[in-house]
Design brief:
The protein is of the alpha+beta class. Helix content is 40%, strand content 20%. It has 2 domains: 277 residues, Nucleotidyltransferase, domain 5, CATH 3.30.420; 163 residues, ATPase, nucleotide binding domain (Nucleotidyltransferase, domain 5).
Length: 505
């Protein structure tokens, strides 16, 4: 193992940092994961401290090395990915000016309403997206309106992965997919939009140079080498967003591929040869040149289950931390004892409002239909089913556009056999689970392409693609979920105005 060359993929995710080490034949070597804190100082606010990300990477990296009985000198190339829309502002001395506003943050609702009223057509025409608090543009507008000195002092803006990579290479770049996630990018002319920067009052001078995801963004510096143990001069590939790299590593590199993700958010991606901007969806280019994908994104998927665990299963979670059983496994076992449909109990996963298909920050989460008969297992299952219905809400927008034969699943939630089964029956499509489906694995593959170790994307992906399970829908259960999904939608329609009355912001 000592002489084996290794590729390193780094995912700076919403909840924590995941790293994956593979060899140049795409065999898994080791991985590591470290959580970091998200701060919620006000209702609807979500922030992270950028100083938490690099230590989390280091801890995860050395965990992966230990698991794989490897050393950092074996790393010959690396790449990074991260959740999109989140920006770090630095002053002229490269000091971070404030905590990073995360994509889950909804504080810029007023700015969004202003842009929707005055510029929505212009923004959609140039950026292919509709304004919402998710986008970097709106976050920066909020900062400018409430903390104007911060933006005045800003000399450089870096997205999450680019900020961590800056500490490794000293270079400042981002890729086009990340740029598209800012809503400051001109998709037709393939550059930062002077017009969108003008109407949002964002100085275009602070935005980073643009490169391809597979470009070498820089090389490990002497200082970074002394900290990480990776050899000085090792190439660092620019990388891209976690969404793109997750889809990439499960083989979504061809037209009409469909992927769903159960992570902090829930997403559904349909890959096409050309962009198809949709005001209810998101539109991005892929790391594979010539491909675009329509992205339908909910706000809270696995995050709903995490919230449920942290709020209602504190004793089990405490025992897990102390070396006990995995809390999610316990919840799944309890949920498996409950019949599909949770005996009339429904959950709307609107913990952070909702993105597609409603784009409404004022929606609220709820359990509906509870009786004295319902126990914890019913609530466990209702959370899993509610997220699946939310994904189905989005699936309705694309299922008739192309013939979707199967859906590939990624994300931490997809590791649950029960959740995969629920998804197969709610979508009424086979769900394909692959052995390696973390974005950090996709980043490791991309590192190999960018460094010239693999000839092309096809070689990298084919070497790393191993099917673990195909979950077929059960006709009887799928029919039951079809009926329940209609009720779920009816409940949404009835409760929507009530949810808005509950809004206290």
């Amino acid at each position: 193992m000592r002489d084996t060359e290794l590729l390193l993929g780094i995912d700076i995710g919403t909840s924590g940092c995941k790293v994956t080490l593979i060899d140049t034949d795409c065999n898994f070597i080791g991985d590591g994961y470290t959580e970091y804190k998200t701060y919620h100082p006000n209702i609807g606010w979500s922030e992270q401290d950028p100083s938490d990300w690099f230590p989390a990477f280091m801890k995860s990296f050395y965990t992966a090395l230990e698991k794989g009985k490897a050393n950092p000198q074996q790393v010959v190339a690396l790449s990074l990915d991260a959740s999109a829309h989140n920006i770090v502002l630095l002053d002229e001395d490269d000091r971070v000016l404030r905590k990073t506003i995360m994509w889950t943050d909804t504080r810029s609702t007023e700015e969004t309403e202003y842009m929707m009223k005055n510029y929505k057509d212009q923004i959609f025409e140039i950026g292919y997206q509709m304004p919402s608090p998710t986008w970097t543009m709106l976050q920066l507008m909020w900062i400018n309106n409430h903390e104007p000195d911060v933006l005045k002092k800003a000399k450089r803006a870096m997205f999450v992965k680019d900020y961590v990579r800056y500490q490794l290479t000293g270079t400042w770049t981002t890729d086009h997919i990340e740029a598209q996630g800012s809503l400051l990018f001109d998709n037709k002319n393939w550059c930062w939009s002077e017009e969108l920067c003008r109407i949002s009052n964002v100085p275009i001078s602070i935005l980073p140079p643009l490169v391809k995801p597979t470009d070498i963004a820089g090389y490990i510096t002497a200082e970074a080498s002394s900290v990480t143990g990776i050899r000085e001069g090792v190439p660092v590939i620019n990388g891209s967003t976690d969404t793109a790299l997750e889809a990439y590593c499960v083989g979504a590199i061809k037209e009409n591929s469909c992927v769903t993700k159960l992570a902090t958010s829930g997403t559904l991606y349909l890959f096409r040869p050309d962009p198809y901007p949709n005001p209810q969806a998101l539109t991005y280019s892929h790391v594979v040149e010539g491909l675009w994908y329509t992205c339908l994104a909910t706000s809270s998927a696995a995050e709903s289950l995490r919230w449920y665990r942290d709020t209602f299963c504190k004793e089990e979670w405490k025992k897990e931390i102390e070396g006990g059983r995995n809390t999610y496994q316990i919840l799944d076992e309890e949920a498996e004892k409950v019949a599909p449909g949770s005996e009339g109990l429904f959950f709307h996963p609107y913990l952070m409002g909702e993105r597609s298909p409603y784009w409404d920050t004022k929606l609220r989460a709820s359990f509906v239909g509870a009786t004295a008969h319902h126990g914890r297992g019913h609530f466990n299952r209702a959370v899993l089913e509610g997220v699946a219905y939310s994904i189905r809400d989005n699936f309705e927008l694309i299922k008739n556009e192309v013939d979707i034969q199967e859906v590939r699943i990624v994300g931490g939630g997809g590791k649950s056999p029960l959740w995969r089964s629920i998804m197969a029956n709610v979508l009424n499509r086979p769900i394909l689970k692959f052995e390696n489906d973390d974005s950090s694995y996709g980043s490791a593959l991309l590192a190999g392409v960018g460094a010239g170790i693999f000839a092309n994307h096809e070689e990298a992906v084919s070497k790393g693609l191993h099917l673990k399970e195909s979950v077929e829908p059960n006709a009887e259960i799928a029919e039951e979920y079809e009926k329940n999904f209609k009720i779920y939608r009816q409940l949404h329609d009835v409760l929507e105005p009530i949810y808005k009355k509950c809004n206290k912001r």
